[in-house]
């Protein structure tokens, strides 16, 4: 049995890091299409659709290579 790469959650008083979930695509597609985020951070020139984001999230969730760590960030208002 392989050891878990990271904990299920890391929680503080204001934020929590947790494993990515498929339903996160509905939120992340919005910030990926925000011009300031897209142009300054991502460098992806085209709009990202929910379908594209769903494929990316599924790829992350099914990746067993253990070469990257992807977590969602929630603030206290998301809980």
Structure, described:
It is a single chain. The chain has 79 residues and is α+β, with helices and mostly antiparallel strands. It has 3 helices and 3 strands. The protein has helices at residues 25-32, 35-42, 50-62; strands at residues 9-11, 15-19, 71-75. A 3-stranded antiparallel beta sheet has the order 1-2-3, with no helix packed on it. The longest helix is centred in the C-terminal third of the chain and has 13 residues, at 50-62. The mean pLDDT is 82.
Keywords summarizing the entry:
3-stranded antiparallel sheet; single chain; 3 strands; 79 residues; alpha+beta; 3 helices; globular
How many strand elements? 3
Structural class: alpha+beta
Q: Which bin fits the share of residues in helices?
A: 25-40%
Q: From N to C, what is the helix and strand string? A: EEHHHE
Number of helices: 3
- The first-to-last residue Cα distance is 32 Å
Strand content: 15-25%
The radius of gyration over CA amounts to 14 Å
Overall 3D shape? globular
Overall pLDDT score: 82
- Report the sheet with the most strands, covering strand number, pairing sense and barrel closure: 3 strands, antiparallel
């Amino acid at each position: 049995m392989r050891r878990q790469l990271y904990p299920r959650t890391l929680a503080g008083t204001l934020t929590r890091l947790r494993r990515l979930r498929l339903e996160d695509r509905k939120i992340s597609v919005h910030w990926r299409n925000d011009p300031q985020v897209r142009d300054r951070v991502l460098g992806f020139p085209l709009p990202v659709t929910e379908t594209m984001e769903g494929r990316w999230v599924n790829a992350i969730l099914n990746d067993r290579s253990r070469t990257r760590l992807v977590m969602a960030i929630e603030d206290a208002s998301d809980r």
